[in-house]
Amino acid sequence: MARGEAPQTRIYFKGKDDEFVIFVNNAEAAERWNSDKSTPLVRVVKTFQIFKTREHGSQGGLLIASNADLRDEFESDDIDKIIEIILEKGILKNAKVCGLVFSMVSGVAQTF
Predict the structure, then answer these.
(1) Residue 111: what pLDDT?
(2) I need a surface site. Which of 31, 38, 62, 72 has the fewest CB within 10 A?
(3) What are phi and psi of 52, to 5 degrees?
(4) Which residues form the Ribosome maturation protein SDO1/SBDS N-terminal domain (predicted)?
(5) What is the Cα–Cα distance from 18 to 73, expressed in whole angstroms?
(6) Which residues contact 109 (CB under 8 A, 6 or more apart)?
(7) Among 24, 73, 30, which Cα is nearest to 46's?
């Protein structure tokens, strides 16, 4: 498999207005965490970044969720606590990401 084409395991959480997304190492790590909360999050998530999508669900572009977005939805901007909520209540999906680049400066996922 060429670089950038590896399957990405995501967990989606449907909020009031947006869907929130986190990337996890693999489905087994997420399931293991759900059965044993003592598993450190660093062994489960790929990045401690929460993304959101407003349109097109799992097919839409991803934006980095702002602290205001997180407070509006989760009444907190504590990343660890929000990741735990998404892990517990979200839906696990695997997606093949081909040519997707996350711009940490603009906060937008772009294809090339």
Answers:
(1) 42
(2) 38
(3) -140, 160
(4) 9-94
(5) 9
(6) 51, 61, 62, 63, 100, 101, 102, 103
(7) 24
* pLDDT one digit per residue (tens) for the chain, 112 residues: 455 556 688 999 999 888 999 999 999 999 999 999 999 999 999 999 999 986 655 556 789 999 999 999 999 989 999 999 999 999 988 754 444 443 333 444 444 3
Q: Where are the domains of the chain?
A: 7-111
Residues 6+ positions from 106 with CB-CB distance below 8 Å: none
Structure tokens at 76: 């907190």
| All residues at 6 or more sequence positions from 18 whose CB lies less than 8 Å from its CB, including other chains | 52, 53, 54, 65, 69, 73
pLDDT at residue number 83 = 97
Amino acid at the residue 74: F
pLDDT of residue 49: 95
Please say whether the dihedral angle defined by the alpha carbons of residues 103, 65, 85 and 41, taken in this order, is positive or negative. positive
